[in-house]
Amino acid sequence: MLDVISVAILAPYELVREGLRSILVNGAFNVVASASGAAELEIQAARSAPDIILIDDTAMLDHGELIDIRRLFPNSKIALFVDGADMEYAMQSLEFGVDGVLEKDISCEQVAAALKMIALGQRVVPSRLVESLANLHFGYASGDWESNSASAKLSDREIEILKCLAAGEANKVISRRLNITEATVKVHIKAILRKLHVVNRTQAAIWAVVRGLNGDAGPPDQVRHAAYAGMAGAA
Asked: Which DSSP state fits 97?
């Protein structure tokens, strides 16, 4: 567990930067940079290596700039603070290195809780964005969890790990929970991705959630209320 989480803020408007700074300082975060653009962020945060880079969507970064930030700060998590109406941009950003998406209509306490989850390696995604991603990648699947997992030929251990992925847990957390090494977790995840015909752990988690991970009926309600490391879990 991190003692003090360091955060760099990227937002073009001073009022937004100061508002976010106030929320973070009150939440016991260490704000190490506050920049109006990507170039200024690079200068301010170069030596501090922040745990999280919090980007306001009004910065209007294109995906090339997100990739550049990921390259410049490979050990930092990237969180995107978005207007709820701009889910398409948020969806696309997840494919370009963003680790979490926070909507602007959540409380200060939820912002702090979500950032702590991101710092621990969990993916934070609003539940309605999970629903949109599920539609985009898979469409809603019919049937219960047991029949879907059987058709994918998942082993009992792979099902355990897939449940952890659906909860947004990092490899280190999964290894401790299941008492196996991180290397073994990675081997199982590669097998899961291959069997589910998906390209990353986020898609694997969505696959599980939309099919009713706990044996419940599938979407849309199950997805909408899923605690896939989303705002429901951060509340």
From this structure: T
Q: Are 83 and 39 in contact (CB under 8 A)?
A: no
Q: Record the tokens describing residue 183, joined without a space.
A: 């290397």
Beta bridge partners of 78: 53
**Vertex 41, ends 9 and 73: CA angle to 5°?**
90
Instruction: Please tell me which of 57-71, 73-87, 152-166, 170-184 the model is most confident about, judged by mean pLDDT.
Output: 170-184
* Domain assignment present for 157: yes
pLDDT higher than 50, residue 235: no
Handedness of CA 19, 110, 70, 135 (dihedral sign): negative
Give residue-wise pLDDT tens across range 93-113. 777 778 888 888 889 998 999
Alpha-helical (H) ranges within 59-200 are 63-72, 87-94, 108-119, 127-137, 145-151, 156-166, 171-178, 182-196
Q: Is residue 98 part of a domain?
A: yes
What mean pLDDT comes out for the span 110-118? Answer: 90
Domain of 49?
Answer: 6-121
Residues in the chain: 235
| Chain segment 1-15, per-residue pLDDT in tens | 457 999 999 999 999
Is residue 224 domain-shared with residue 174, that is, in the same domain?
A: yes
CATH of residue 102: 3.40.50.2300
In a 3-state reduction of DSSP, which class is residue 133?
Answer: helix
Q: Are residues 105 and 11 in the same domain?
A: yes
Domain count, the chain: 2
